[in-house]
Each structure stands twice: as structure tokens, then as C-alpha cells.
């Protein structure tokens, strides 16, 4: 990073900035609000200056400048709240509102666009509405509402530059230009991998998670709280933010963690419906004594109490322990085996193998990672003397060559 500093003025305030900072970034750091739609400050998003919502006035220049792409120079005098800049920004939002559905029937009445519109106190009906595009609900996880699209291009950058899937693009020309998937296919028929990056970054509600849409294709994105956590699926450790409404997850956003930098895969972003699935077990169950195991009989997960009864955790654990002890005493320790989880900590893995070796009396203990990690363990032991991972994921950025052997990261860690 270039450590050189430059000095300039924002609203008559002397400020310092790095040479690679834009006016908008400096203003954000100082707590000065400048509207923005086509710009995202999240990692890997380049500024394009498409929407012209972030215009500021620069002393001595005839035209306004887009603060998201303009870098300050030594002694520059920037006025973010001038009458000229404020009027221009308000006009931009009023023009964009003419391309939006009515707010009461809008896909996302709480979108970034409408939040900024409220702050700027725009006249939503100053210009006549001119678009009427059919919704695309062909995808299971996302709804496409191009009636609300402003062609800001953020979804294209999300798909091409950030997630590098290259499914979303811009097609046609002039007033007919629009966002398309592959060869103008329905989203559900395209090669979209459902990472949802475009949904997270869309400022207008043109792309929305299906989970928040009602039968009228209007969303309710007002939530009670946000909870930061780690994705429960694979071991990459992507950081996530749960948006909670009425004690249920409404949707999931990616957080800027060291291994994912806001990005998520389809499982991390949309794979949470199991939490509220009616077939999910919420308390321990013990098989009824008069119900024998029958592998040929189809189990009905919607009616587990037909075969099991509810029990306390103590009773259930005692029942399991007595069952394992009975097998060990009758058939011997080698009739049992333990299979560990990749999600456990080192301490939990130690305790688990201790249980199997001392409690069960057998060395039949294994781990799910051995199947995919066995070859790399041997290679690491022979080359560096340790079978453990020696570097974090993001060290790949500092590597000149990356060799992948015996792995399928596209499927296992999308």
C-alpha cells in the first residue's frame, strides 16, 4: 500500500488521504454521508461511477464529479453539500424513481434506493413511470425483478469480478439495455451457481432472496436483529450475518472474514431451511420397546412418535451408553467403531478417540477427513515433516504457483 499522504479540503475541513483513496472513501471515514447506489465499499468491488448519485462539487471545475471514482489531489477543495451537488443528486434519484414500481408494490420497499430517497426527500412521481417488465421467478432461491433495476452494473461486477462466475451481463442497447443471465435465459435455466452475491449487493430489490417475498412479490426486509456467526457447513470458516425476524432467519449475508471476504456459496447463503423444517428433531427420542427394527419398513419422518417416545437427555444418553456397553460385553470391543466429525475441535477429537479406545476397547476410530486428506497427509509428512495444514487460505494470494492434486474445490468448496 502506498503510504504517501495528500492534504485537501472537504466542506472547508482540512483532511489527509492516501493517494489510492477516493473522495467517497475519505468522506465515509470522516462520517460525511454521500449517497451511492452503483458503488459498494465491500472487498473486490471496483467503482464505476455509473449511477451519478454520489456527485460532489469541486472548486474551480465546471462539472460535478462522481466521488466514488474521483481521487483527491493536493489542495483540492471538495464541497459535498453544495446546492448544486444536492440538486443534481436529488434529480438523479427522481429520474431513477421513474423506472421503479410504486413503492407500495415494490419488490423491496426498504431497499438502499428507497432509504436514500427518503433522506433526500425526493418526489417519487415527478416523472412518469416508463417500465413494465415481467418478473422472473424461475429460480428456487432468488427472484428477479428487473422492473426495479437501474442498470447500475453492481450485479455484473459481483458475478464477474468478485465470484468469477460470469453468468450475469448487460445486453441490448440504449433504453432497451438490461441485465441478462447467459444468453438472456431465465435465471433458473442459466448456469447460475446460486452464490447469491448479486442479491446481497443489489441496491434496489431487482434481485431478492425468495425467502422474503410474499405472494404479491413484495418483500418485508425489516428485521429484529442481526447475529454474526460462522457458516455451519464445510471447514473453510466463512463468516456470515443472520438477519433475524420473529426468531427465524429471514436471509443470510456474507461478512468480511479472512477466508471469504463477504463471499458465500449456495449452501452458506441459502441452505438454512432445515432449521425450521417440521421434520427436524428438537428433543431426544427412544425407540418404543414394542417396535422392532425393520430395514424393509419405510420410516415416516413426519410421524416419529409412531416408533419412538420422547425422553430427557440423561435418559437418552444412558440408553445409548448401555446399548454400546451391551454390544461391547457380548461381542467384544472390535464389534464397535467410532467415526469422528471434521467440525470438532482438537480437544473434542482427542476426547472422542479416548472414548473409543478406552471405553469401547478398540482402535476402530476414524475421521471423515481421512478419505479426502490421506494423500496430502503423506505428501506433507514427506516434504515438510508435518501432516497439518501450514498456511491459511488467503496465503494463496502470495503464491506464484498453486498446484491442486486429488481435489475438487468447485464441488467441495464452491
CA-based gyration radius: 28 Å
Strand order of the largest sheet: 2-1-5-3-4
Query: Which runs of at least 5 residues are low in confidence (pLDDT < 50)?
Result: none
* Terminus-to-terminus distance: 30 Å
Helix proportion of residues, in percent?
A: 10-25%
Helix/strand structural class:
alpha+beta
**Strand runs, count:** 16
Label this structure with key terms.
single chain, 414 residues, alpha+beta, 5-stranded mixed sheet, 3-stranded antiparallel sheet, 10 helices, 16 strands
Secondary-structure blueprint:
Layout: E1 5-10, E2 13-18, H1 23-29, E3 55-58, E4 65-66, E5 77-79, H2 83-97, H3 112-120, E6 142-144, H4 154-162, E7 168-171, E8 178-181, H5 197-201, E9 207-209, E10 225-230, E11 239-245, E12 248-254, H6 266-270, E13 285-287, E14 308-310, H7 313-331, E15 338-340, H8 346-360, E16 365-367, H9 370-384, H10 409-412
Parallel strand pairs: 1-5, 15-16
Antiparallel strand pairs: 1-2, 3-4, 3-5, 6-9, 7-8, 10-11, 11-12, 13-14
Helix pairs in contact: 2-3
